[in-house]
Write a structure and sequence with these properties.
148 residues, alpha+beta, four-stranded antiparallel sheet, three-stranded antiparallel sheet, 7 strands, 47% helix
């Protein structure tokens, strides 16, 4: 992974990026009273400053808020929207693990094309799996593994 991507990933994962409640409300379209209610119910969490007045939300929590709002906008109840968001978050953890652990190298081979190396096959370490992205088409392939 390139150094910039790694720094961004670590910044988001560290949860050090914090945004005020009013800014979260402005960006997501969820009112501050709704955010307070969701927090009171335990659906989301914030951190408060020293005076225990201002609420600050982490980057992942903002995604939670946005996702809950999307489900509410689709007509789900708040309880169901939260349940669906939690399921989506679990799937996201799995996907994130795949991205961080599974992708070994990304190489651009043309203007709209590239190759993503996914590593050796579990059943045959002499073969590697890779994805070829060619314009709008993506395909998975297997080839003999090159020794470094």
């Amino acid at each position: 992974m390139d150094p910039l991507s790694e720094k961004i990933r670590k910044m988001i994962a560290s949860k050090q990026l914090k945004i005020s409640m009013s800014e979260v409300a402005r960006v997501t379209g969820v009112s501050t009273s709704q955010l307070r209610y969701w927090e009171k119910k335990g659906y989301i969490k914030s951190e408060q400053d020293e005076q225990n007045k201002n609420h600050y939300f982490s980057f992942p929590t903002i995604f939670q808020v946005l996702t809950i709002k999307v489900f509410l906008d689709q007509g789900f109840t708040l309880a169901m929207a939260v349940k669906k968001e939690r399921k989506r978050r679990e799937l996201h953890k799995i996907f994130t693990r795949f991205i961080t652990d599974g992708i070994k190298e990304v190489e651009q081979t043309g203007e709209d094309s590239g190759e993503v190396k996914l590593g050796a096959l579990a059943e045959d370490s002499t073969k590697e799996v890779y994805a070829v992205i060619d314009g709008e088409k993506t395909s998975l392939r297997i080839r003999d593994r090159k020794e470094n």
